[in-house]
What we know:
Blueprint: H1 2-12, H2 21-46, H3 50-81, H4 86-93, H5 113-131, H6 133-136, E1 152-153, E2 164-165, E3 175-179, H7 186-198, H8 201-204, E4 210-214, E5 231-235, H9 238-243, E6 250-252, H10 258-267, E7 271-275, H11 282-301, E8 311-315, H12 334-354, E9 356-362, E10 377-380, H13 386-394, H14 399-403, E11 409-413, E12 420-423, H15 438-445, H16 456-460, E13 469-471, E14 477-482, E15 491-496, H17 504-507, E16 522-524, E17 527-529, H18 531-541, H19 547-557, H20 565-577, H21 586-591
Helix pairs in contact: 1-12, 2-3, 10-11, 11-12, 18-20, 19-20
Amino acid sequence: MHVQDDQEVIEEWDGSEPISHLRGNRFIAILGWFLLCAALMWPVNQLHMGFVGLVIAMATAILILLWVRWLVRVIQRKMAGISLTRRQWAEMAMGVEPGEIVDEAEPDPTLAPGEAAQNSLATRRVAQTTALQPYYQQRVATLDDEDPPDTVTEENGMYFSDYFMPALAPMLGQIILVCGNRGSGKSNLLGVAAEEIARYEEIARYHVPILFIDMEDQWSPLANRKYFPRGFLAGDPSLQFVQKIPLRHFAPVTLDNANSAGRKLLEHCLQYVFNMKSYPTLDDAALVLCELIRGMVQWEEEQENKDRLPVVIFFDEANKILPQEERYSEIVDRRVQEIVYKTFFGLVNRGRNYGFAVWFATQRIQQIHKSLLQAAYKFLFFQGQKVDLEQYQIFGLEPEDVLSLQQGECYVFTPAIIGFRCYMRARVSPHLGHTPGLDQLRAYQQSLRPIETLNGGHISGQVPDPMEKRFTSNGMREQIAYIPGGQNREPVSMGSASPATIDPELENHLQPPQQPSGYAKLEINGIRVTAMQKLAYELHMKGHTTGVALATAMTIDGRFGKIDNNVSYRLRNELATKGLISIPTKRSQEDA
């Protein structure tokens, strides 16, 4: 049944860019190599060179193909550098004169570094636009003068910063690309845009349907009605039990009901934060996501064109499942990868007809699929890699301009603005993806136990018997006991003493009536484990083999209270270290 649904998804987006273009290029290269070898064999045979001539012909064919490939790439860069299509190049070859490129003006030494970079960028772009006006005027709007505007404020503008307040209407139905290194401000911009669009009714009284695809389980605070007025946290049904989310704020989505959930998102103008991490595997999450989007598309298709609704999709870390090359995708099943490509490139190619505006975010512009570079809106943050800087140069950004960007600062490209440089405001909603710093370390260390109270057995996970007697280096006995009334009741050293010198009140507690369940003396196949490890082992053997499934099962069991994903993953790793279970890796799944 699911196979049939997936096939329908593939057929629905007929005409979108296939993912087999790389294989086609390889086939053409191999075919060309054989043809060149065949052509070169004639002079070789005339010279009677034998096997040596065959090797020379094969090597020469390879060199010719490499030279042709290099020449094609040089031509493509030239075409992209002045924003000409193949058709426009053909018209130039037929005698159409595009005009001369105006030399770049010298930077004004009286300007500040940021203003000088902005002025230099605007001068280059205006020069190119003026020279290529017959071809370029339909692609971007030229600036009236050489200096970029100080502020961009549009009617009913959203507050992205004090200097940039764009209107929502022109962004609807557009592809929007956000690029920047980790920590440059990329994720902050996504949060700002989501907050402004979700609460657009405060500006123009519109509730905009939103689907925010959360790849790293760090955007769930957005689902709070304080930020998303019609928000729901959507994901695998087990997520509700793990995080104890009230049903009125949670939308369980499976492959069976994903189509219906997508329809309801538009029907009721809902705002989803779709948690991809909540599913057992990324492949499962990707299939559910594609079916969810399919339901949204079907709902739009069933409406008259005048009755269709705009919808905004945010996709953070898009390069993880939409890379330029299929082999870099984190999806294991190539059939699932095919469905993902068909679905999202269908939105890129035809989504405008249905009112889909998609924000794609990636850390490196070189890793994202090149089809997304046609985005009408671009927010380009700091990049440090040479290949990424070369890609930025296609848009007219020089490496020194990009390297001078500060955290939160970017270049903005829109149909009416070229290379506007500005800072973005800080988001209001909590940010779960921030980098831990010294403040977190200082706060945590306030609750640490003194190092003198810890022993090696506790650190390694092999907790000694509370009544076990050991000998210290000076030959005296060391007694290990539980401190009564302790908050965590962990084993600590009692020091060197004989039984006669132990405090009588403490002696009554050397064997506590009930030891903590986490330190009970239990065994599995002769291997010592804790009670929590034993429960995890039993549930694993019953089929709860993933971290999320194990956390859910242990939480439902109730013996140890709420178990989050981090604890379940740690327990799985501990059991695997002891050799009790095996955890399949991505490579082993691919080999299988």
